[in-house]
């Protein structure tokens, strides 16, 4: 999995998205893609291992239109990655926005976001409300478990999978603050973690039956500078929740902090509905201004 500061900086500076059961998202700010959508053959994070479903990378782009052009080119089975599913990829242009039901929250109950981050989410919800979408201020029950559960799963093997990836890459260097603290779980604890993960996914899915989208922060803070995220790992819990559910998500830039740093908003859709995430991301991108090159 890429260093958290890299995920945050790239997502919010470029406005990209990554999808699935991955630790990454659909990006023109940050987002994740569904596992089983894109081949991981030859990736830095290949298929395989206990946490296979977290090892899914999505593309990055500066605009939602670019993402929509790119996805059909890279999606689908390659007859090598055993996790790929031949699921049709629908067209974002065919999505009727006013039919969509949106749940939004600016605080996940784990870490309170910065004021500008919360405002970006509320502003995005107001824009969708004005467009005629059905908006409800509510967060999924159980989402407050996501940080502890994700860290427990990532460290359950004592860091063996991460060290394997580092070894395959010919390095020992990393920026994962939790790796040195990871302790292998015994069989009983590992079984309990896997059961808790399944129940978490079920609870989240039950919540989603009444909505088509979830709108939330992508991080508790504006874009972080490289190397500055170690003390704020909980800030990434806003995406960890959807790494564990495996739902597609897109992120677009929604505003700018007083320090001039980009602030992203995350758009999460139902499994295999990247088209819905991209349709709403595209609308918000245009309404909020999208990616603007920094002055240099």
Structure description:
The structure is a single chain. By secondary structure, the protein is an alpha/beta fold. It starts with a helix and ends in an 8-residue tail after the last helix. Helix 2 (64-74) runs antiparallel to helix 8 and helix 4 packs antiparallel against helix 6. The chain has helices at 4-14, 64-74, 115-131, 146-155, 160-168, 187-208, 237-245, 274-288, and strands at 16-18, 26-28, 101-104, 134-137, 213-217, 249-256, 262-269. The chain contains eight helices and seven strands; from the N terminus they run αββαβαβαααβαββα.
In one word, what is the shape? globular
Low-confidence stretches: 1-32
Briefly note the structural class of the backbone.
alpha/beta
- Strand fraction band? 5-15%
Q: Could you report the average pLDDT, rounded to the nearest whole number?
A: 83
Strands in their spatial order, largest beta sheet: 4-3-5-7-6
Radius of gyration: 18 Å
Give the total of beta strands.
Answer: 7
What is the terminal-to-terminal distance?
30 Å
Major sheet attributes: 5 strands, mixed
* Total of helices: 8
Q: SSE order in H/E notation?
A: HEEHEHEHHHEHEEH
Helix residue percentage = 25-40%
């Amino acid at each position: 999995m890429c260093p958290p500061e890299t995920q945050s900086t790239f997502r919010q500076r470029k406005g990209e998205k990554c999808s699935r059961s991955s630790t990454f998202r659909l990006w023109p700010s940050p987002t994740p893609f569904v596992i089983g959508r894109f081949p991981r053959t030859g990736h830095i994070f290949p298929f395989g291992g206990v946490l296979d479903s977290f090892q899914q990378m999505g593309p990055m782009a500066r605009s939602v239109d670019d993402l929509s052009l790119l996805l059909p080119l890279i999606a689908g089975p390659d007859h090598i990655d055993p996790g790929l599913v031949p699921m049709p990829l629908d067209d974002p242009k065919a999505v009727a926005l006013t039919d969509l039901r949106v749940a939004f929250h600016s605080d996940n109950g784990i870490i309170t976001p910065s004021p500008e981050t919360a405002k970006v989410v509320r502003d995005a919800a107001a824009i969708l409300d004005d467009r005629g979408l059905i908006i409800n201020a509510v967060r999924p029950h159980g989402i407050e478990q996501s940080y502890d559960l994700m860290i427990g799963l990532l460290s359950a093997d004592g860091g063996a999978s991460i060290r394997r990836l580092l070894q395959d890459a010919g390095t020992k260097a990393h920026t994962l603050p939790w790796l040195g603290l990871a302790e292998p779980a015994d069989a009983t604890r590992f079984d309990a973690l896997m059961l808790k993960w399944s129940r978490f996914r079920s609870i989240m899915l039950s919540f989603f039956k009444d909505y088509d989208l979830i709108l939330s922060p992508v991080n508790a803070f504006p874009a972080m500078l490289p190397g500055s995220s170690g003390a704020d790992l909980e800030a990434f819990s806003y995406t960890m929740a959807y790494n564990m559910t495996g739902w597609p998500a897109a992120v677009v830039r929604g505003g700018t902090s007083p320090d001039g740093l980009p602030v992203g908003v995350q758009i999460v859709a139902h499994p295999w509905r990247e088209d819905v995430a991209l349709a709403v991301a595209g609308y918000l991108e245009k309404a909020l201004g999208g990616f603007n090159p920094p002055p240099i």
